[in-house]
Design brief:
Belongs to the peptidase M3 family. Its cofactor is Zn(2+). With 724 residues, the protein is mainly alpha-helical. It contains 30 helices and 7 strands. A 5-stranded mixed beta sheet has the order 3-4-5-7-6.
Length: 724
């Protein structure tokens, strides 16, 4: 999924304050000395240098040297401290221009360093980087804690926020002033003495723990690879077998077949492998990440993280972490978030019972003599899919070529956003891996340069699992125009040499989803960096909505073609896909919601009473969690909430956003031009994409739809009874 600069340091304060940083008066002398000490070295450090080259400048990914990272971080933080001190100690009365705008300008070098940091963290991780990360994480946390502990800086921000000048500012300027003020107020700016000191200490401790948690999960993903022999491949599609052979060869095990410990490898293996013992092994290995009782076990870290978070929000007067986290989200409080979950949960688990009954019947008919277990669910669900809908997932996969799907996404972007994507010749723009390709994005009508789109699609050692989007530069105009550098990152299993990469229908939806984030970045028209800060239960909405265009006739008829024959996908197969649209929805909804509910429970319960494994088991039992399904992210590898704070107590946000998605999709379905209706598309871009966080999301949605979203649309989408 999206990882901007603000989330890289795992501090929610940065979400509110954009690129700004701060220091207390006491550190001014040492910060200046540090700045002088590293200045000479920093002048030659490519990680800090302004982007150069074409397209308004691009990151020097071809010159990345890990030896430069630590000095670059130290130097850029020192420079940023000096910039912030100048703002805090300005003798002139505080104004929007000399306080808020100057904070928006500060920290450009630090932002560039974090761009490279993010590449090493997510795309090119290594033991050497993790050593630097472990050393620097608490120092970075301490650095950013100084934002809320700079009394002079907060006083200036508060003065602007409470001034008569606020009424004269543009809506976006008022919004970023509030976001900046709220970031301080929410994150301890009003604390004094020991409480202020303790708040900073907790942030440093959490930064270390978050890093350890993420690295433990990565270690288990890299350390547990199952190698198969040819006689263990029964049931597996040819495309998967070829990809597994290539993965083994890359790891020095030619002649074998590698099943890696990632979802993109686990999911198809559990769907197709006839070897039940191997399915169980792969399932247990995947779902036990971080829970193996060894040096990479995360159970103790979870309790420490929860305890520190609870103590920290207690310093601010909040009863629970969720109460603190959700006050500026669309949900506003944990009760509203849990309320949405409870509206959908009964229908989801009721559907699971139906799905399991169908699967058990198939198993019994086959004489398999078993009771459905979690490692059987995907396998027998596929058998039910074939029996009920005559739909073979592997047959569908033959029409889902990664390159053709990319062309389909470009088509959609052209129709809705008027964007044109042109490949950038290899070598013109530096990349950090040979798999990365780059496209220039322009306006189809005017030819205006919008930005670049980087694509890093394939899994490899050192790359974190999952799919995500990020930016290396965001659109701003307040200090000269900056164009967008956006990126999509996935973990598809690369096809064998000379073969196209074929992906599942679910993966195709994810591909469109992440491209939705990229379009959100590329379509921005805001002026200020802070306008790009996200509201977590809203930012997934735009990307979820884009998934809907995968099933439009224009995409199906033109881009879903057989990888061997080039023939379009048959109409009868399309009909089966659409008929089966809500198939297995019980599984998908329940595994996700179990994680979302557990997230809220973890952050509304006294951590002193929590032992992660027992707590997970007890709470899921109380919910009536079906035994045949695990949480999508079990506690010990739930990186969304324990390797940082971006999604902590906010994983429900995917469902909150899905309500908006279903409701917005009905707006297109009801329009004369359907999903390509020009009038609705214009409002989509104007109010839901280009505005970013320069407007409260609930207000933006009302401008698009004319009303608030209704949960009934979600229930209809999933084939659940609306009355439940």
């Amino acid at each position: 999924m999206n990882k901007p600069l603000r989330s890289l340091i795992s501090l929610s304060v940065v979400l509110a304050l954009g690129a700004c940083s701060a220091t207390t008066p006491e550190t001014q002398t040492s910060a200046t000395a540090d700045n002088q000490a590293v200045q000479a070295a920093s002048e030659q450090n490519v990680l800090m240098a302004p982007y150069s080259g074409p397209y308004g400048g691009v990151p020097a990914f071809d010159k990345m040297d890990l030896a430069l990272l630590k000095p670059a971080m130290q130097a850029s933080m020192a420079k940023n401290l000096a910039e912030i001190e100048a703002i805090a100690n300005n003798p002139e009365p505080p104004t929007f221009a000399n306080t808020i705008v100057e904070m928006e300008k500060a920290g450009d070098e630090l932002g560039r360093v974090f761009t490279y940091w993010g590449i090493w963290s997510s795309n090119k991780n290594s033991p050497e980087f993790r050593a630097i990360q472990g050393e620097m994480a608490p120092k970075i946390s301490a650095f950013f804690s100084k934002i809320t502990q700079n009394e002079k800086l907060f006083a200036r921000v508060k003065a602007v926020y409470e001034s008569d000048e606020m009424a004269t500012l543009s809506p976006e300027e008022q919004r970023i002033t509030w976001l900046t003020y709220n970031g301080f107020a929410k994150n301890g700016a009003t604390l004094e003495g020991d409480a202020k000191k303790r708040y900073a200490e907790i942030n440093q401790q959490l930064a270390t723990l978050h890093t350890q948690f993420a690295n433990n999960v990565l270690a288990d993903e890299e350390g547990y690879v199952l190698y198969l022999k040819e006689d263990q491949l029964s049931g597996l599609p040819d495309s998967f077998v070829k990809a597994a052979a290539a993965a083994a060869k890359q790891r020095g095990r030619e002649g074998e077949y590698a099943i890696t410990n990632t979802r993109s490898s686990m999911d198809p293996f559990l769907t197709y492998s006839d070897q039940r013992d191997l399915r169980e092994k792969v399932w247990r290995t995947y779902y036990n990440r971080g829970n193996n009782g060894d040096e990479h076990d995360n159970n103790a870290l979870i309790k420490q993280i929860l305890t520190l978070r609870d103590e920290r929000v207690g310093l601010l007067g909040y009863d629970t972490y969720s109460e603190w986290m959700l006050q500026d989200r669309m949900a506003k409080n944990p009760e509203n978030a849990m309320g949405l979950m409870k509206k959908v949960w009964p229908a989801a688990i009721a559907r699971v019972k139906e799905e399991v009954a169908d699967m058990q019947a198939i198993a019994d008919q086959r004489g398999d003599n078993l009771t459905i277990k979690p490692w059987d669910y995907r396998y027998y669900a596929e058998k039910v899919r074939k029996a009920k809908y005559d739909l073979d997932s592997d047959e569908v996969k033959q029409y889902l070529q990664l390159d053709k799907l990319r062309e389909a996404m470009f088509y959609v972007a052209g129709r809705l956003f008027n964007f044109d994507f042109t490949p950038v010749p290899d070598g013109k723009v530096p990349v950090f891996h040979e798999d990365v390709k780059v496209w220039e994005v322009t306006d189809k009508t005017s030819g205006e340069h919008i930005g670049l789109w980087y694509l890093d699609p394939f899994a490899r050692t050192g790359k974190r699992s999952g799919a995500w989007a990020t930016t290396y530069r965001s659109h701003t105009t307040f200090d000269g125009k900056d164009t967008v550098l956006s990126s999509n990152n996935s973990n598809f299993v690369k096809g064998a040499d000379g073969e196209p990469t074929l992906i599942s229908w679910d993966d195709a939806e994810t591909y469109f989803h992440e491209f939705g984030h990229a379009l959100h970045f590329l379509s921005a028209t805001v002026a200020y960096p802070t306008s790009h800060s996200g509201v977590r239960d809203y930012t997934e909405f735009q990307s979820q909505l884009l998934e809907r265009w995968l099933t439009t006739d224009e995409v199906i008829n033109n881009y879903l073609v057989h990888y061997k024959t080039g023939e379009p996908i048959p109409a009868e197969l399309v009909a089966k896909i659409k008929k089966a649209a809500t198939f297995n929805e019980g599984f998908k909804t329940t595994e996700y919601m179990a994680s979302a509910i557990m997230d809220l429970l973890y952050h509304t319960t006294d951590p002193a009473t929590i032992e992660p494994q027992a707590f997970e088991k007890e709470q899921l039992a109380a919910l009536g969690m079906p035994a045949e399904i695990p949480m999508r992210h079990r506690s010990t590898h739930f990186g969304h909430i324990f390797s940082g704070e971006g999604y902590a107590s906010s994983y429900y946000g995917y469902m909150w956003a899905e309500v908006l998605t279903s409701d917005a999709a009905e707006a297109f379905a009801e329009a004369p031009g359907g999903f390509y209706d020009e009038e609705v598309a214009e409002k989509l871009v104007k109010y839901l994409f280009s505005i970013r966080n320069a407007m409260p999301p609930e207000e933006a949605y009302r401008k698009f739809r004319g009303r608030d979203a209704k949960v009934e649309a979600l229930m209809r989408d999933r084939g659940f009874p609306v009355s439940m």
